[in-house]
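Limitations
The structure tokens in this dataset are predictions for the assembled complex, not deposited experimental models. Users should treat interface geometry with appropriate caution, especially where small molecules or nucleic acid strands are included. An illustrative entry is reproduced here so readers can see what is and is not provided.
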Amino acid sequence: MALRTPCYDWHVEHGGRMVDFAGWDMPVQYTSITDEHHAVRNNCGLFDVSHMARLKIAGPDDSQFIDSLITNDITGLKPGEIRYSLMTNTLGGVLDDILVYRFEDDFMMVVNASNREKIIDWLARHQSGFDVVVTDMTFERAMIAVQGPNSVSLLAPLVADPIASLKYYTGIKTSIDFSPALVSRTGYTGEDGFEVILPANKALVLWEALIASGAHAAGLGCRDTLRLEAGMPLYGHELNESIDPLSAGLGFAVKLDNRHFPGSKILGNVKQQGPNVRRVGLELSGKRIAREHAAVLKDGADVGEVTSGTFSPTLEKTIAMAYVGVELATIGNDLQVDIRGTGVDAKIVKLPFYKRG
Amino acid sequence: MNQSDLKYRPTHEWIRLEGNEAVVGISEFAVKQLTDLVYIDLPAVGRQVKGGETFGEVESVKAVSDLYAPLSGEVIAVNDALVDDLALLSSDPFGKGWMIKIKVTDDSKLGELLHPQAYEAHCEAESH
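Predicted assembly:
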């Protein structure tokens, strides 16, 4: 049976169209993807992201253990700081993209729902020699993303400590409704906002309080259009085990100096020689959407592949992300995308497509 | 408009017969299921459509859906206003959101089409 978040009944009662996502029954939309998208850009949207895996990592060797497995350097993080990173296999392919949170006493890793079991297994296989305990907190905690320009004003009154001054990619352990809660200034929409991790039995209280103060329920459908506009990769689309982080344009999260982790040597070579393919943003002519796996063409020849595409509600343009050969991956280059047999003009544009003002 | 004179395919296209001509569109239920429409592809006037086969496609943010002709015939009019403004489909699917008008050449598929009550039951079953 599909997994359900603590807010499942609320979603169903409020018209949520439930779809399977990585084994979870999740709302793809309540009203329309476009309306929910605009609600996040202009006001405040609520996402139930309780399906994301949350792993607590604690013990005397916690920092060294995590450092030995990820591409970014987390050893210098201060308590309350958060860092984006990749986890790569021995060939440098991306196992997952994750967030690592450092606290006084422990670390937490937020992992994609689709990769939860794989990453737990990967951590277990590399744990010998490290004095550390990994605990999967996914089912006893819920996670709610509060995203949009009005997030601070809607969420702050419900949180015991001030959150307006929290910097991007930092978080605090505080409380909501007398229960422990972790509030971080993070998100996956390209908008200001927060993510809240709290006990599963408190999720609905927070959700309903935010809805009552004017936040809009937002489904996975607009989460995808929002992250696409913001140029953020999605695991399973832009990222997978045969793509390396440098080709994906995530070099900012790959620290190779004096560091060793699975795939680090191969990534060093890729960095030296330069990747063969690059992730690019495409702006297409017309209204038809370039879907995943559509071929990218140059003078009729196959030169790449679309990984995600949509109609951007904010820009009112058809956009896509794709991998193309590095020799063609230049801003302004005119290419085509094969949309069900028709070549549609596509220009390479700078990522992100949308940046908040 | 009276929707009781419409017949439906299980794939949610409706047809309104007016003598040997017919207007074709998709139902309100279908439009509500699709949401976020971005594009529609309709055949040119003069083209032949075949009952049970695709005559175009409608695309939403989520997916592309084929449109199926309820009966066979020749396309005698296309709703160009709809191509320019898909909001007509959401606001008035049985009226201003019509898609094509055909001159029916073969109505042998008529028996396969659903009456309004049967179609309503079909939608009810599909939404559970």
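Some entries come with short summary sentences. For this one: The mean pLDDT of chain A is 97.
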